[in-house]
Amino acid sequence: MTKIVLRCEDVKKTYSQGPQKVEVLKGIELDIHEGQQIAIVGASGSGKSTLLNVLGGLDQPDTGVVEILQRAFSQCSDNERGKIRNQSLGFVYQFHHLLPEFSALENVAMPLLIAGQKMADASKIAAQILHRVGLTDRAVHKPAELSGGERQRVAIARALVNNPACVLMDEPTGNLDSANAASIQALMAELSQSLSTAFIVVTHDLALAKTMHQVYELGEGRLVRVHG
Ligand SMILES: Nc1ncnc2c1ncn2[C@@H]1O[C@H](COP(=O)(O)OP(=O)(O)OP(=O)(O)O)[C@@H](O)[C@H]1O
Ligand SMILES: [Mg+2]
Question: ABC transporter domain: which residues (predicted)?
């Protein structure tokens, strides 16, 4: 069996707004292996983004364990958690969240610079991964000068640049037309094969979900495998 890159055990999360409590996650169990690709589907408000934030260490569960490469987030300092996020995880959001003042190349190089790599080395690696996503010609353009699909490819390149064990994506094709969505989907499949990166993709796009190894549905606070 390949190694487990992300493990989630009995994760619970409740939001309280004044007297009202919203029990969003009621005991989530999930193991993700090296190179495994899963989709998470579910109704709006079912807790998909909440779950992704907890898996990525951006938010804390009330109880339960999230482990990345055998290290539990709950046992890490904020500093260590940031380091794990930078070195072992990649993130792609529905809206690309690229830095507007920086070029595509600089945006992609950013996680490497944060990890302490020298500019020359970071630029070289960033240029290679931009080439992989077919954007060599757009390297010096700023996000505002790129199309929606191109921006999302830059965001994917940025998520992959430090060769993370697992990439978490929230609606990566949500704002794209079907042709662009299909090309992003093909790109993800190719990259996960050649880099053995695991992908957890939250999506409303059933065509995209079906290309993943397994599909899970989040409902009533629980994650249930529905396909694969
Ligand atoms: N910070 C918060 N404080 C209080 N309630 C919240 C907070 N964040 C989310 N919620 C509530 O938790 C529930 C799950 O929200 P979440 O954003 O995880 O849903 P989602 O499945 O990602 O929905 P969508 O498909 O619309 O993006 C919703 O009822 C939402 O109102
Ligand atoms: Mg959401």
Answer: 6-226
- Per-residue CA distances from 43 to 17, 59, 219, 223 (Å): 21, 21, 7, 12
Q: Can you give the pTM of this predicted structure? A: 0.92
4-226 CATH fold: Rossmann fold (3.40.50)
Return mean pLDDT, the chain: 92
Residue-range domain boundaries for the chain: 4-226
Q: Is the CB of 45 under 6 A from ligand 1?
A: yes
Is residue 94 scored above 80 in pLDDT? no
Instruction: Report how far residue 41's alpha carbon sits from residue 219's, in angstroms, rounded to the nearest whole number.
Output: 9
**Beta strand spans in 34-127 (E):** 37-41, 63-68, 71-72, 89-92
What number of CA atoms fall less than 13 Å from residue 211's CA on the CB side?
19
Assess contact for 25 and 54: CB atoms under 8 A. yes
Ligand 2 ion local residues (Cβ < 5 A): 49
Q: Which pLDDT tens digit goes with each residue over 13-70?
A: 999 888 899 999 999 999 999 999 999 999 999 999 999 999 999 999 999 999 999 9
* Cα–Cα dist 127/118, whole Å: 14
Please state, in angstroms and as integers, the Cα–Cα distance from residue 83 to each residue in 126, 207, 208, following that order: 19, 34, 30
